[in-house]
Amino acid sequence: xxxxxxxxxxxxxxxxxxALTTVGGSPLPLETVVGFVGDGARNLLTRSLMAAGNGxxxxxxxxxxxxxxxxHYRIHCLGETKxxxxxxxxxxxxxxxxxxxxxxxxxxxxxxxxAGLGLAGHFREVLGGDNPYGQKPDPxxxxxxxxxxxxxxxxxxxxxxxxxxLNAARRAGTHFLAFLGGMGSRSAMLAGNPEASxxxxxxxxxxxxxxxxxxxxxxxxxx
Length: 223
What we know:
Layout: E1 6-7, H1 9-22, H2 30-34, H3 41-52, H4 59-76, E2 82-83, H5 87-93, E3 100-102, H6 107-116, E4 125-127, H7 140-149, E5 157-160, H8 163-172, E6 175-179, H9 186-191, E7 196-198, H10 204-218
Parallel strand pairs: 3-4, 5-6, 6-7
Antiparallel strand pairs: 1-2
Helix pairs in contact: 1-4, 3-4
């Protein structure tokens, strides 16, 4: 969701910096915080604390910072967060596809953001990072969604902006479509040699159609 459906970077950075100052640390620049996003809230706060300090932090400090972050973010997660241009129109054009959200963000703010941006109705499943199956790149959450929807890996495409997404798709055996205009590292994504990529969320349907055509060609024309 972060960096694919919505640009959440400013609200994440504001809440991280609130948490850092709460535990006596110094705030970090926006892009520093963004570089730590993608592996769940606890990892985000751990990395931020280490960057704001001397490279060391305690479990208790992480727990306190994480609690402060979650409390602040629950309230302020929609302050400056916006969908990427073209997201809503693309989701409307893809109404015939079954869609789900798999995010390493905790479920409560994930649902709040989807509802606040008017996107929640497009998705049959929303699985947050606090689910019992594990976080990306662990494929278990993706496999749970496929099982719930009774679809195979061949019938599934994961769309994401981070290497966590790419690796989750590979481990689950699904197809992958890389969004290069999000919050994740473009160079890291391209270095991972994704199956297909696109730059503009307004072009998501065309990118998906291109991937589908390539899949069919690789399988001898079978749709």
